[in-house]
UniProtKB/TrEMBL annotation:
GO terms for molecular function: electron transfer activity; heme binding; iron ion binding; oxidoreductase activity, acting on CH-OH group of donors. The keyword Membrane applies. Its cofactor is heme c. GO terms for cellular component: plasma membrane. Residues 49-152, 194-301, 327-413 form the Cytochrome c domain. Heme c 1 binds at C63, C66, H67. This is Gluconate 2-dehydrogenase. It is found in: Cell membrane. InterPro entries: Cyt_c-like_dom, Cyt_c-like_dom_sf, Cytochrome_c-type_DH, Membr-bd_ADH_cyt_c.
Length: 436
């Protein structure tokens, strides 16, 4: 036998050995023990005050939003989350003993929330924001457990995910966690006051605001270097919450409080889409907590540094509000007069809450027209922002008509450059919304 085949075989064996060791090492790192199942707690096993506190936390964390299929049983799972890696369906978190968490101990629940590991030891996909929930206190996690385990059990088998091999191998999530999960409860900043720290705890932990408002890297982790810089989520552009936010008027503490408490402000408009669900979820939080969130995000957005030109901006917006209220030759102006002016026209000294001023709305001044197009197509429901107020959908308009309307509003209400390829963008949004 010549020397070359011997060398080749040794190299091959060495490579195979390294692969085996690597796989064994990965699974050693990934292995987590199962936690013994329990008998489902009896009704009345948890104190009423714990359940009540847990209900508030579940609302603040929007648990029902992601764990409920539209029209389905609350918390029974099955909600489809479309990611860059495939569709992941949320799980059943009712206390059903077979398909839900009825046989999960509190220790198993806490481990899932903090480490992203299920009761049986399998790793959860980071579509579940355990990277935020790891910051939640023991007290709050215990109260949340008490609330969920007190719900009505509902049998709902898990729906299959569409994440392809090898990304669907749960053990690989351990590598993701080594790179991106920073475990540990929220640590207060001693240089900040109590309200700021409470707002930071809610935003970074329970309410996981960065999950929607922070862009992600190639493997789906939030980019720490771009916290709250804005991202696309559920077909909506979640705007930046930093000073890069495009809103003409600063999001002051008072504006943030009003928006998060009521779902709308006269200066910024109404919550719609995913953000409307956020406002509904926060509705059970006490005023002090909403105020704390406002304090925190006013600081994140450097509102104090942006608030000097409010009168000039407001006067300019109200002056532009009259554009399109007279018959003009522009096609977009004609559409605005026919379909929009009756509800969106404002005059000095200030816009009205029930008449959102388009010149002040971030959907019109942002770099991406997606939010404006979606609102035009689908309208605003009575249960979105302002209670009882609504905007009808205009999906019957053609792509070219909606594009001309958006171009007209952008040109007459903002000083921003025109959006490119608007008609194609309208067609794209319409196609994504209908799934065709």
């Amino acid at each position: 036998m010549t020397r070359r085949p011997i060398v080749f075989r040794r190299v091959l064996l060495a490579v195979l050995g390294l692969l085996v060791l690597g796989v064994a090492g990965l699974f050693a790192i990934a292995w987590r023990p199962a936690i013994a199942p329990i008998d489902p707690p009896a009704p009345g096993a948890f104190a009423a005050d714990r359940i009540a506190r847990g209900e508030v936390l579940a609302g603040a964390g929007y648990c029902a939003t992601c764990h409920t299929v539209p029209g389905g049983v609350r918390y029974a799972g099955g909600y489809a989350m479309r990611t860059a890696f495939g569709t992941i369906h949320s799980t059943n978190i009712t206390p059903d003993p077979q398909t839900g968490i009825g046989r999960w101990s509190e220790a198993a629940f806490v481990r899932a929330m903090r480490s992203g590991v299920a009761r049986d030891g399998s790793h959860l996909f980071p579509a579940f924001p355990f990277d935020h929930f790891t910051r939640i206190t023991d007290q709050d996690l215990g109260d949340l457990y008490a609330y969920l385990m007190s719900r009505e059990p509902s049998a709902a088998a898990p729906k299959p995910n569409t994440v392809p091999f090898p990304l669907n191998v749960r053990a690989l999530q351990a590598g993701w966690k080594l790179l991106f999960l920073r475990q540990g409860p929220f640590t207060p900043d001693r240089t900040r006051d109590e309200a700021w720290n409470r707002g930071a705890y809610l935003a970074e932990g329970v309410s996981h605001c960065g999950a929607c408002h922070t862009p992600r890297n190639a493997v789906g982790a939030e980019r720490r270097d771009a916290a709250y810089a804005g991202a696309l989520i559920d077909g909506w552009q979640a705007p930046a919450l930093t000073d890069a936010n495009p809103a003409p008027l600063a999001w002051t503490e008072e504006a943030l409080y009003a928006y998060l408490r009521s779902g709308a402000t006269a200066e910024h408009g109404s919550a719609v889409g995913s953000m409307a669900e956020v406002v509904h979820g926060l509705s059970k939080l006490p005023d002090a907590d909403i105020r704390a969130l406002a304090v925190y995000f006013a600081d994140v957005g450097r509102a104090a540094a942006r608030s000097g030109d409010e009168r000039t901006v407001l006067a300019g917006a109200l002056a532009a509000s009259g554009e399109g209220t007279r018959q003009e030759t522009d096609r977009g102006a004609g559409l605005y007069l026919a379909a929009c002016a009756a509800c969106h026209y404002n005059r000095a000294p200030a816009p009205l809450l029930a008449r959102p001023e388009l010149a002040l709305n971030s959907a019109l001044v942002g770099d991406d027209p997606t939010n404006l197009i979606r609102v035009v197509l689908h309208g605003v429901g009575t249960d979105d922002g302002i209670p009882g107020a609504m905007m009808p959908p205009f999906a019957h308009l053609g792509d070219a008509e909606i594009a001309s309307l958006a171009a007209y509003l952008r040109r007459t209400r903002t000083g921003r450059a025109p959006w490119p390829d608007l008609e194609a963008k309208v067609a794209e949004v319409r196609r994504l919304d209908t799934g065709t």
